Amino acid sequence: MNYVWKEWMEQTRGKGLWFGLGMVVIMSLFILMEAMNTPFEHGFQSVLISLHEMHVFLLPLLCLFVASFAVLQEKELKTLMMIVTKKESYRSFLFKKSIAVNLVMLALFTGWYILLAVPMRLFLAFDAAAFLSFLITVIVFILIFNQIGFFIGTICTNRMQAVGAAVFVWFAFIFLFDLVLLYQLPAVTHDNIMIFSVLFFLQPLNTLRLYLETSAGVFSMEYMSYLMDKLIWLSPQTFLWINLAVFLIVFFEIAVWLRRKGLRYD
Amino acid sequence: MKRLLFICFLLVFFFIPARAMAGGELQEMIDAADDYETIVLENKVYEGNIVIEKPLIVTGSEETVIRGDGTGNVVTIESSDVHLEQLQIKNSSFARGDGEEYSGIKVNTDGNSFRKLKITDSYHGIYLSQAHENIIDQVEIHGQKDQETIAGQGNGIQVYYSERNTLTDNYIEGTRDGMYFEYAHQNTISGNEISHTRYGLHYMYSDDNRFQDNSFTFNIGGAAVMHSSRNEFTDNKFSMNQSSRSFGFMLQASSENHLEGNQFIRNKRGLLVEQARGNYIYDNEFSQNDIGVEMWASSSQQIFTENKFYKNRSPVVQVGGESENSWNEAGRGNDWGSDFPLADLDQNGTGDFSVAYQSSLHQLLEENELSYLLLNSPSIVVYEKMNQWMNNQRTMFQDDFPLQNREVLPVVKYSAFILVISGALLGVQRRRRSA
Predict the structure, then answer these.
(1) Which of A206, A220, A225, A227 to mutate to probe the B interface, most B CBs <10 Å?
(2) Are B371 and A185 in contact (CB < 8 Å)?
(3) pLDDT for B418 beyond 80
(4) Between chains, do A40 and B239 touch, taking CB under 8 Å as contact?
(5) Residue B18 pLDDT exceeds 60
(6) DSSP class of residue B326?
(7) Mind listing the pLDDT tens digit for each residue in B257-302?
(8) Beta partners for residue A15, in sequence order
(9) Quick one: average pLDDT of B85-107?
(10) Distance between CA atoms of A223 and B224, rounded to whole angstroms?
(11) Are B187 and B157 in contact (CB under 8 A)?
C-alpha cells in the first residue's frame, strides 16, 4: 500500500503523466466530436476503433516513459539501493513498483474513459460489451508497455539512455515489427502460416486490434478463407491473454535477471 | 359412470399436451374463407404449414405466430392478391436434399403483399420464385448465424426470376445473404437495413433494378453485384464492413451500373471493381476506408466524377496492372481531401494542376491476402516511403481536374474548443499560483 500511495503522490505531483493524460483527453474529445458528426449509425464502434488507433501511437510511448522513469528515479535518489540492501530483493521491489505504477495509470486512464462513456452513452448507440472490451484493451496496453518500461528503467543508467531506449522500443513496436512482417508476406504459404501467425500475434498491437474488432462485432470471423482460418487458430481473447502473460512474465524476469545493470553504489 | 366420465374428461383436458390450435384449423379457416375475405387471427400460436390458394387478407396482432412443422415452407402462396400483415412466421425446414430450398414464406404468384412480418428459424426468409409485382414492406428477418457451413442458412429475401417487385423498409440480420437476386429485373429496393450477413445484397444476372436509401453494416461484404447491368444505386450507406477481405460494394463482371450519392464509410475496401466495364460512379463519399477504391486490371472504362475521398488509408489502389478508367468527366474530377492540397487561383472550383497518387500497396495485395490484415498498421506508411525512395511505386490514378477540397480540418473546426480548454487550464494554474 505504501508503494501505491508513494507512487500516486510522485506521479500526480510530476507533470509528465498529466501531460500524457491531457493529450489522450483532448484527442479522445476530438474523436468523439468527429464521430458525432459522422453521418452513419454505428458511430460508437467507430469511436472505439479511432480511440484505439490513437492509443497505438500515444499509450506505448507514455507508458514506456512513465514506467522507466519511475524505476530510474529510485536509482537516482538512491532509494532503490537502500531498499535492496536493507529489506527487499530486487524481485520484490520490482513487483511492488509494477503494481503501484500500474494501479496509478490504470486508475487515471480507465477513470477518464468511464467518464467519457457518459457522453458516448448520451450521443451514440452505446454498446456496453464493446465498451468493456475497449477498456480491456486499454488495461492490457498499459500493463504490457509499463512492464517493458520497467525493464528499460532497470537496464538503463540514466534518463537520456532511457529516453533513447523507450523511443527505440516504441519505433520497433509501432513500425519495425510489422514492416518485417510485410516484407515476409510473399513467403507465407499454407505450410508455414503457423510461424507467421505466432510472429503476427506476438505483436501486441495486432492482437489488441483483432480482439477489439472482433469483440465489438466489427471484424467477423465467419466465412474466412482457409489461410485466414489457419492464421487465427485461437480465439482473439486467447491470443490476448497469451500476449499479456508472455510480455509480463518475460520482461519482469529479464529485468530481475539484469538488475545489477545501472545500479551504482558510489 | 358419470363420475368416471368426468374424471376421464379432466385427465384428457389437463394432461394431454396442449396444442395452441390444431394444425389443420388455420388451413381450414383459409379453405373455408371466400375470395378476398379478411381473416383476423388471435394473439396465439397457429400451427402450419399452410398453403393459400385464393385471394385473401390474413392479419394478426403482436403475438400472432404461424409455426411450421419443420418439414417444408411455413406459408406457401399459390394465388395472386394475398395480403399478410402483422404475423410472426417461424420454423421452416432446413433440409437441402429435397430439391427445394424452403422458406418462411414461399411465393409463386404475382401481386401479393407482405407487411410487418417477423420471420425467424427459417432457411430463407421470403422466397419469391417467378413471382412478379409483389410488395415486401417492414418485414424483419433474423437468420441463424451459427450454422456449420455457409449453405446451412439461406438468404433473408431471395428473388429468383422475379420482376417489378418492391422491397421497402425491411430489416435483415444473420442470414447468408441479406437479399439475393438471380435473374431478377426491374425491382425497386429502398430503405432496407441489413447487417451481420455474408453479402448484404447479392445480385446475380439481374438488370435494371433501382436501389435507394438502403444501409449495409457489419457484413462480410456490403453489396456484391455480379454479372448485372444497368442497375441504379443511389443514396445507400455501406459502412463498417471490416473483415479481412471485406468490401462496402463490389462490382464484378458487371457493366453500366450507376452509383450516385452513396456513402462508403470505414470499410476494409469501399468499392471493389473486378472485370467490370463502363460503370458510372458519381458524387459518392469514400471516407475512413482502408482502401477507398480497389480496382483490378481486368476492369476498364469506369468513370469517377465528383466523388469525395476523405481520410482513407489509401484512396485508390489498382491491382494486377494498369487499367483504363477515367477520373474526371467534362472537366469535373474528384475531391481528394486534405491529403492532396490544391491551388485554385482562378477560383473555378477545380485545381490548377492535376493530382496523381503513387503507391506500392498493389504489390502486397497481389501477393498475399494476409496483407489486408496489416493495412491498418502504422508500418504501411514506412513501407510506402521506402518504396518511394526505391522507385517501386506506380501511379494509381491521375485526376486532371481535381475538385477544390472543401473539407474543414478538425483542428480548425474545433479551434474554439481548444482555446476554451487552454484558457481554463491557464486560469486554474494562475489561481493555484496566487493561492
Answers:
(1) A220
(2) yes
(3) no
(4) yes
(5) no
(6) B
(7) 999 999 999 999 999 999 999 999 999 999 989 999 999 888 899 9
(8) none
(9) 91
(10) 15
(11) no
User: Rounded to the nearest 10 degrees, what angle do helices B379-389 and A177-184 cross at?
Assistant: 60
**Beta strand B171-173 pairing with B193-195:** parallel
Which residues in chain B have their CB less than 8 angstroms from residue A178's CB? 374, 377-380
pLDDT of residue A86: 75
The pLDDT of residue A235 is 93
Peptide bond between residue B165 and the one before it cis (omega within 30 degrees of 0): no
Q: Cβ of A228 and B370 within 8 Å?
A: yes
Residue B171: how many CB atoms within 10 A of its CB?
18
Q: Do residues B71 and B89 lie in contact, with contact meaning Cβ atoms separated by under 8 Å? A: no
A→B contacts (Cβ < 8 Å), by residue, are 26, 29-30, 33-34, 38-42, 45-46, 49, 53, 56-57, 174-179, 181-182, 185-186, 188, 196, 200, 205-206, 209, 213, 217-225, 227-228, 231
Question: Looking at this protein, which amino acid is placed at residue B345?
Answer: L
**Band (A12; pLDDT cuts 50, 70, 90):** confident
Query: Which of B176, B202, B242, B385 best tests the A interface by mutation, with the highest count of A CBs <10 A?
Result: B242
Closest by CA to B369, choosing from B319, B322, B297, is B319
Residue pair A217/B240 in contact (Cβ under 8 Å)? The answer is no
Residue in the structure block whose three cell numbers are 506506380: B394
Partner residue opposite A223 with nearest CB, options B220, B240, B378: B220
Dihedral class, residue B99 (left if φ above 0, else alpha if ψ from -120 to 50, else beta): left
Nearest CA in chain B to A204: B377
> A22-31 contacts: CB < 8 A, separation 24 or more?
A23/A58, A24/A54, A24/A55, A24/A58, A24/A59, A24/A62, A24/A109, A24/A112, A25/A112, A26/B418, A26/B421, A27/A54, A27/A58, A28/A54, A28/A112, A28/A113, A28/A116, A29/A116, A29/B417, A30/B410, A30/B414
Comparing CB atoms, the residue among B237, B240, B364 nearest residue A45 is B240
Q: What is the DSSP string of B123-162?
A: SEEEEEES--S-EEES-EEE--TT-SSGGGS--SEEEES-
What is the rounded average pLDDT of the residues B112-130?
Answer: 96
List the grid coordinates of A75.
536509482
What pLDDT score does B435 carry? 63
The 10s digit of each residue's pLDDT in A161-207 is: 999 999 999 999 999 999 999 988 888 888 899 999 999 999 999 99
Contacts of B265 in chain A (CB under 8 A): 38-40, 46
B407 is written with which cell numbers? 473539407
Length of chain B: 435
Q: Which residue of A has its CA nearest to B412?
A: A30
Which H/E stretch holds residue B25?
Answer: helix B23-32
Write the ipTM. Answer: 0.84
Nearest to B37 by CA among B65, B79, B75, B74: B79
Name the nearest CA neighbour of A85 among A234, A238, A265.
Answer: A265
Contact A222 B368 (CB under 8 A): no
Q: Which residues of A touch B418 (CB under 8 A)?
A: 26
Contact at CB, A26 and B217, closer than 8 angstroms: no
Q: What's the grid cell of residue A26?
A: 483532448
Q: What secondary structure letter does DSSP report for B403?
A: B
